[in-house]
Design goal:
It is a single chain. By secondary structure, this protein is α+β, with helices and mostly antiparallel strands. The chain contains 17 helices and 23 strands. It has helices at residues 48-65, 105-114, 117-124, 133-143, 145-149, 157-166, 173-176, 191-196, 219-225, 239-246, 309-319, 325-333, 373-396, 414-424, 436-448, 455-459, 475-491; strands at 2-10, 14-21, 26-33, 45-46, 69-78, 84-86, 96-97, 153-155, 170-171, 182-183, 188-189, 206-207, 213-216, 232-238, 256-261, 265-272, 290-293, 299-305, 343-345, 363-365, 403-407, 427-430, 467-469. The strands form seven sheets. The chain has a seven-stranded mixed beta sheet. The protein has a six-stranded mixed beta sheet with strand order 3-2-1-5-14-13, sandwiched between helices. A hairpin with a 4-residue loop joins strand 2 and strand 3. The N and C termini lie far apart (63 Å).
Length: 495
Amino acid sequence: MSDIVVGLDLGTGGVRAIAVNLQGQIIAQSTRSYPLLTPQPGWTEQNSSDWIEASLDALLDVTQQLDEHRPIALGLSGQMHGMVPLDAEGKAIRPAILWNDQRTGKAVAEIEAAIPRQELIQRTGNPAITGFQLPKLLWLRAEEPQAYARLWQILLPKDYLGYVLTGEPVTEPSDASGIGCLNLANRQWDTNILHALNIKPALFPLVIESTAIAGRLKSEIAARVGLPVGLPVVAGGGDNAAAAIGLGISSSNLSRGSLSIGTSGVIFAPCVGVARRRHRPIPDPEGRVHLFCHVDGGYHLLGVTLAAGGSLRWYRDTFAPHISYTELMDMAERSQPGARGVLFLPHLAGERSPHLDPDTRGAFVNLLLAHTQADITRAVLEGVAFSLREALEVISAIAPLDQLLATGGGARSHIWLQILADVLQTKLIAPKAEEGAAYGAAILAMVGIGVYPNLEAALNILPQASNVVQPQPNPLYEAGFKRYKLLFDTLKAVR
């Protein structure tokens, strides 16, 4: 029998389980979905029991596809920032509050009143942000005190899944650094921050390395999903960090990052290598981009545009529901760089980087009777690119990048890739295959059980990228970007 490892990614829309052989080839895979709950405007929740049922079903489906393969480890990944509050019996007290939930504005203000913003950024790499887990905990204390009184432990989504699988409540630095109280210098909970907020550090789980074994598969779980009892479960990583490992992006090569064009747009940039851990990671002084731990022992910066592919989907659903995305891209090519003056702000869900403003809004600007649907479509593509360039400019001042591996649905469009390369003035490389965070979790599991001595050795099994898009300088984009940057402050007055 040949050995395989299992990767499990607990996403917002669903869970994906994959089986990967030790040469990096996917042998089997399965996905399951679960509902998103929006009980009030601005609230997003999920039932953690739905995660478990879907995950176990997906694991069973994968094991049933395995023929003459022996599972030797399981690695975890998942959506970041969510809060699963557990009581003393290890049961969820309430539905999980997710990364994109916006109920915690007062809690953010409470944190910044207790810890000066600049100090918080220096300690944790980030200001207090509504989506992070720490403000959710303060919200629970203020708004649901009876639930808070029962609290034994709070876990991130993937770590809750790991707890159900193994009975061990642990976390790892890449996900924990998105909570809001992990000290990035020592990669442990910042007790000064927690004491200032009157929060017991014992509410948070033990922090172990991303490639460490979090626990072993419980017998009742193993029997249900067809995996071996005692199977090592490796801690893994938050979805962005795990996906980066799946692309071969590590802190050993600080010139190469990634650009994901999915619903959101994300620029991932390694910024401090493992060999330089003695050097303190440097956050943006204003906290305009995130600074998190990477799963390889280094660190990374993250710039986020909340509505990237989401802007194109909104435009299509609202104004062109009978036109395919392929037709929209062909239409955009019939316009010209600069979209003949039309500008689009993609702030349809507020904005993360670099503005950190949940109340900012989207807009079309400079419309004339002479403009066509081709111009407006291209303006959407360019607006997303301009938004990402704002984030990249902040990142580049700390961690310059020579190239970005482009992934996500938007990266399948050659016209959007060229627009992005030209606006960002950065070489883009489209990988031959994009397997996502579950694949990265599987790679981490291989290292965790010693199949490979370290991540660098494991990354050698990944296929090499092929399609390269070189940036072309274009003064129309430069002029458009200057006008774009003026719009954020100009439009504040008409919100």
